[in-house]
């Protein structure tokens, strides 16, 4: 009978003059689903899907009834689905097996609410064996979202499918992160929630996707940590807002949602990916473009082109195969929350959004709630939760009573507090998982610290003072012990707690200034003033290129004075020129150096990025011509001024040299840029990315670029200078040029140009100049920056979010930044004394 439905659907689609692709685009039902229905591979069409197809085919009443009858006739014949769904609302008739989610039994309401026989309640879903008349076909609200339809085994995604590979990468990443954060040690802290107030949610009719004039009954979304994926699947709109105060466990809930959703994910469901939305500026980039950019940053292999001209990341986002888990709406800058919420409302993407309640409520008051989104609010931990958790985090004492531990007196004192009085500061503070985790680190993992001191109300007269105490002592506590080894496998140097606090304070202050939670190695130098970055880059380039020029000149001529003079002139001019290029690129245009998402392959010519060679040829030629003209003009005048003071001769020689060098450098730069573009190939799609691996990959890419740039650029400049002299000979005056001068120019230009390009225009070069040299030289960061960041990650101060680090919690970042600013003001105050 399933074949009959496919034949009817194909006939009606053909009569409407639509292809499978066109019908899929109109109905928002995937082309794969339509193809499966028409070929008989899908034998159990959802009524939501059938109704959408009927609407977009613009069927007449008789044709619509024929299609619906064909869809339900297999149920009248008693056929059962080949694979019962375990998703919320799709479990009618399915057993309560181990894979079932809560609320998927036949006694549950299709909208996720418990069954109720009270008056006015909607009927329970009909089991698959019950016949349905087309006129009473299931309402959209009683069916799962079309994206959750299970595929037949023959229609499953291949392991090489980009979405499936992404699912595996995301699973591995967040499992490691969960282990690093000790979420399961000894067991997860209870994170519970309740349905949020109606003022922060959309109309339930919109959330349930009901048609006009339909009666909507609110869902009961109350639950706890292990039920978050099931709770989300009970929401037909697939849009959920998670609200919770600072430290209440929103990020841990997002992490658990991703892992649970991936564990129970159907092959047609999108892949959940966590994005730190605090880094999004909705006034400069659209949500989908930002999601694709973030996905490419954390998974550079997805920068490769897909079937069209877009990248794989953009295709996954545009096709709805990514489920954005947007963590930290409250971390968006104050003036950007309203446009951010408006931008989210302009899309229909399924998503999960986390935020503190006050910031979200303020944005809602300015515009509107998140369209079609349900909302839940995290609740506080209870004293019973603490009693079950904290004693099991301590070492077993060597006492007569092995069950006794340091937390017993504290818990007893909290239980004995009179209920008619306000909670003590400690009872108030320990209601959030963040503060419990800090208290555990300081007092459970450190035997000589007694948690009973936390009960001292004279010392800690308010919750704020107690929280500051825990935040103040967290860094000294985690830096007390020397780690055994770094994540790279080498010996660990160890870091002093006071110095580590200073460096972490600078990093926190740096992120606060940039208004982002992402600690990216390629943006560490952006905390400096733009003028400082330009000056430091220019000076270091002048020194590097001057040293190269002086060494080569001395090796050729053997004269120290001449070599020093030549090195000084070339170094100074190169520093000025490349400093101007740096200023023009990163200051005037506001562009930021970003890590390359490609690598260079020298053995064969890849075809994936050949299309960039043409633009590179044009851009490189124009840029090289401008640089060469300016360079030749200045050098020509300086050299001529040493011989004569006639201004007309000085200017004439400068103009001629500018013309010659502009032509030579323009051709050389254009050809070299073009060659680099031809050699680029995307990174492997399954390449693991973390801050160190991305840095290592980009260092390797820049090294290969230098190996290509130096000989290619030097050879073209050396050979091209002779050609240019022959071309312009006579037309601009007699020109004197020797083969030795051409060779010397080629070598110096090749090496100097490669160094200038690498340090000025690449993310790794800027990292080397600013983060590895200048910031440690001025005491802002340690010399072993990467090792320090990895050390902070292993100690639990930082967390990894793909290619970047983040502070363990925004509250910790704010505390360290505030302490850093106070220390800086104190130093400025006492310096004159």
Automatic annotation (TrEMBL):
<dbReference type="Pfam" id="PF13560">
    <property type="entry name" value="HTH_31"/>
</dbReference>
<dbReference type="InterPro" id="IPR001387">
    <property type="entry name" value="Cro/C1-type_HTH"/>
</dbReference>
<feature type="transmembrane region" description="Helical">
    <location>
        <begin position="700"/>
        <end position="721"/>
    </location>
</feature>
<feature type="transmembrane region" description="Helical">
    <location>
        <begin position="617"/>
        <end position="643"/>
    </location>
</feature>
<keyword id="KW-0472">Membrane</keyword>
<keyword id="KW-1133">Transmembrane helix</keyword>
<feature type="domain" description="HTH cro/C1-type">
    <location>
        <begin position="9"/>
        <end position="64"/>
    </location>
</feature>
<feature type="region of interest" description="Disordered">
    <location>
        <begin position="22"/>
        <end position="45"/>
    </location>
</feature>
<dbReference type="InterPro" id="IPR027417">
    <property type="entry name" value="P-loop_NTPase"/>
</dbReference>
<dbReference type="InterPro" id="IPR007111">
    <property type="entry name" value="NACHT_NTPase"/>
</dbReference>
<feature type="compositionally biased region" description="Gly residues">
    <location>
        <begin position="90"/>
        <end position="102"/>
    </location>
</feature>
<keyword id="KW-0812">Transmembrane</keyword>
<dbReference type="InterPro" id="IPR010982">
    <property type="entry name" value="Lambda_DNA-bd_dom_sf"/>
</dbReference>
<feature type="transmembrane region" description="Helical">
    <location>
        <begin position="741"/>
        <end position="764"/>
    </location>
</feature>
<feature type="region of interest" description="Disordered">
    <location>
        <begin position="68"/>
        <end position="164"/>
    </location>
</feature>
<dbReference type="GO" id="GO:0003677">
    <property type="term" value="F:DNA binding"/>
</dbReference>
<feature type="compositionally biased region" description="Basic and acidic residues">
    <location>
        <begin position="68"/>
        <end position="77"/>
    </location>
</feature>
<dbReference type="Pfam" id="PF05729">
    <property type="entry name" value="NACHT"/>
</dbReference>
<feature type="transmembrane region" description="Helical">
    <location>
        <begin position="535"/>
        <end position="556"/>
    </location>
</feature>
<protein>
    <submittedName>
        <fullName>Helix-turn-helix domain-containing protein</fullName>
    </submittedName>
</protein>
<feature type="compositionally biased region" description="Low complexity">
    <location>
        <begin position="103"/>
        <end position="117"/>
    </location>
</feature>
<feature type="compositionally biased region" description="Basic and acidic residues">
    <location>
        <begin position="23"/>
        <end position="41"/>
    </location>
</feature>
<feature type="transmembrane region" description="Helical">
    <location>
        <begin position="562"/>
        <end position="584"/>
    </location>
</feature>
